[in-house]
Amino acid sequence: MKYNPNEIEAKWQKYWAENQTFAAQNNSDKPKHYVLDMFPYPSGAGLHVGHPLGYIASDVYSRYKRHQGFNVLHPMGYDSFGLPAEQYAIQTGQRPEDTTSVNIDGGVDKEGNQIAGYRKQLDKIGFSFDWSREVRTSNPDYYKHTQWIFIQLFNSWYNKNSDKAEDISTLIAVFEKEGNTNVNAVCDDNIAPFSASEWNAFSTEEQQKILLQYRLTYLAETEVNWCPGLGTVLANDEIVNGVSERGGFPVIRKKMTQWSMRISAYAERLLQGLDTIDWTESIKESQRNWIGKSVGAMVSFGLVPTAHSSESKAIEVFTTRPDTIFGVTFMTLAPEHELVAQITTPEQKQAVEEYIEKTAKRSERERMADVKTISGVFTGAYAEHPFTKEPIPVWIGDYVLAGYGTGAVMAVPCGDERDYAFANFFKGQNGMPAIKNIFNKDISESAYGDKGGFELVDSDFLNGLGYKEGTKKVIEALEKIGHGKGKTNYRLRDAVFSRQRYWGEPFPVYYVNGLPQMIDAQHLPIILPEVANYLPTEDGLPPLGNATTWAWDSVQCSVVSNQSIDHKTVFPLELNTMPGWAGSSWYWMRYMDAHNENEFASQDALKYWGSVDLYIGGSEHATGHLLYSRFWNKFLKDKGFAPTEEPFKKLINQGMILGMSAFVYRLDGTNTYVSKNQIKGQNVQPIHVDVTLINSSDELDIEAFKNWREDYANAEFITEENGKYIVGREIEKMSKSKYNVVTPDLICAEYGADTLRLYEMFLGPLEQAKPWNTAGISGVFGFLKKLCRLYFDDNGLIVTNNEPTKDNLKSLHKTIKKVAEDIESFSFNTSVSQFMICVNELSTQNCHERAILEPLAILISPYAPHIAEELWSLLGYTDSIATVAFPEFEAAHLVESSKEYPVSFNGKMRFTIELPLDLTKEQIEEIIMKDERTLRQLDGRTPNKVIIVPGKIINLVG
């Protein structure tokens, strides 16, 4: 009988599927435990060995909790809407739904590419997912509910008094009775006040426009990251170094009418909620910084009228340092600020417009990160200081962002490093006054930015005050003259929710006279239409502009031909689609009740499962998915749907498994490749080469390389003296573009999934990045074979019913204790080490006792489930090992009853003796003095002193 992983694993994967072994129950007497993975986007490239790391960890934990008697929900699905599928459709002419389906289920696409399929790859690794609850965000039966949530957001407003979202009807009731002057809401700025009689006299259209300023999802002209190459708006986290993360296309800032989500309404709750959840401090800090709470004041600076602009205007500024108001020497507006075009003088117009055009090519993130580049232009306009009435020049500069604060800064160079650098860079130019110092501190070398340790000078009524007293007094003075008030501000901006692309959730929205109307929930889903072209239309409309059947018949309540649009009963539908984060902002709740046709989940299911107990995924989602998910969860809680305030109790970020890339070195300007040790100062270009063409000694298979790609067919090589070509090696992110991908399929085929699972857990701490080294796989495979030899040999089962020895029990219970502690603390790598120690010890002890080997099989089951099931079956059990109770640790087996003492003479150890630990010093001395070895050492002498420390040392002196 031999260990055959392929046969064993196929057998048990079939058993689990047929018996629904891991299906969770929505009603159970067992305590519940919900373990969730961040679900994958199913690309055609499939899984590489880095992808399953988090899944294996969550699976180990899920299986362990089942052994502990929990009803475990461990689901899996696919975040299947997204830009990559659409880009692939544009390139190949295939339907995104077709390629997405093939990527998940496997098969051959229209290009003839053999696609492994995510589902088959995941199944081969032996995950204990409850596949009966699988979701795909691109399925209409799923996004029907995403559309429904969007409608709930549209029909809600945020009441600051109750500190939660409420139905829009309650706001309308207030307007009808008393107007809006006493409404305390999160809403657009500068909403005109109106009375109840005025509201009731407004037309329906006027009322709808006003309500849009309060709704939690709303249409507004917004500064967005427009990517012409992809034809869509991108979120900040989809941009890297000023270009799109997907494809590397340039991104510019542009004003567009977009759907937005009023996530800013939840800024304080998002901040406070971080104190209630068990997440890593680094992720919490990322969110705190992104939310960016600041306490200060809103200050209004009136603009000085000019010959070409006599209209009364003001620049609104939020500042955290109102105490420094007498140090303001200039103002800076974001280049996109709406006032820039209105206040720029004719003399400065060309320079301002050129600067704005240049700035539009830089993303917000790039501008925030670039602290070295100083650039800006004087507008020619002046503002008026609210107290001194002195004119203050107004500049524009890209270090000020339109999306943060008000998009305007009151520049105090003596107290802020960026203002200081800006003022010195433009020193002496028209529109840049000398720096004014309002601190009793030296600022000749740098600004004084501390909030303490100073007294204000040259600051009128603030002279002699510090930060706290000065802030309080200036806010009182600003409120008195009507130029400002105290305010708490947040960096968190409302989230743009529109994408100019095809492959996303359609909005359940049609337009009457340009105003959005929601389609009634009973008519959902509004299904994505067929289009002939996935690119924007010739006149710049989103891809849905290519649809011919994309209009809403408000009488028949159905989607009809565009030719039927009459703007009376048939109206145009929204052409944008929802962003990628829409479907992923609530998916964990759908898993709770995945087949419910009427609701996104029943109240009973939501109440039973509550929130996710353990969430494992990448840290790259800190300010994207994790923030949006918390926002939607809090909103659904406000509306009485979600049972908890926070969706994910505990969050763990798995580290990345890195690839070992290989490089050949091309001699510049030639098709000649120089072996690594022969370069010797020559100008060469390193080029990634497929790692499958390299052996374990870093030698390139030259013929295989020449056949790999057409442009290498005639390559020439400068080799080592032995005729071999040695490649360079470097640890990098594992990716298809670097040709360093190792697929789990190959590992499973050669060594088995249990070996892969154990090896990935063995590589190092879960949270850390670690390089992949295939050479280590064989050692883990050898361990599993050694484990099997405890249970069977070539002739079959060798397990006995004999009583185990003390050493057997000690090895087992040491392992029970260690494994339980390690899984609870997510230290999976040290568990694998303990398994190896235990098996080595039991092998040395020649242990084949059932009392030891049965619990050992259960212990290893979470990590290597297939072999554990097989061993359990061989031991005579017919049911799965999956829910057998976890072995109980008995401390008594680790309590030492005896001690092997080193016996020393004058400090030198001469022999050892094993003695019971309960002996007194006198009893130990009596035994030692009668021992033949002691008598030989003393040779008739009597020691001057006998030093005995029970349990530690015995030393005879003199």
UniProtKB/TrEMBL annotation:
Species classification: Bacteria, Pseudomonadati, Bacteroidota, Flavobacteriia, Flavobacteriales
Matching InterPro entries: aa-tRNA-synth_I_CS, aa-tRNA-synth_Ia, Leu-tRNA-ligase, Leu_tRNA-synth_edit, M/V/L/I-tRNA-synth_anticd-bd, Rossmann-like_a/b/a_fold, tRNAsynth_Ia_anticodon-bd, Val/Leu/Ile-tRNA-synth_edit
Superkingdom of the source species: Bacteria
Residues annotated to bind ATP: K736
Family matches, as NCBIfam families: leuS_bact
Keyword terms: Aminoacyl-tRNA synthetase, ATP-binding, Cytoplasm, Ligase, Nucleotide-binding, Protein biosynthesis
Annotated ranges, domain Aminoacyl-tRNA synthetase class Ia: 11-155
Coiled coil: none
UniProt protein name: Leucine--tRNA ligase
CDD domains named among the record's database cross-references: Anticodon_Ia_Leu_BEm
Protein's cellular compartments: Cytoplasm
Ranges of residues in domain Leucyl-tRNA synthetase editing: 288-478
Domain Methionyl/Valyl/Leucyl/Isoleucyl-tRNA synthetase anticodon-binding: 809-921
Species for this entry: Flavobacterium ammonificans
Pfam families according to UniProt: Anticodon_1, tRNA-synt_1, tRNA-synt_1_2
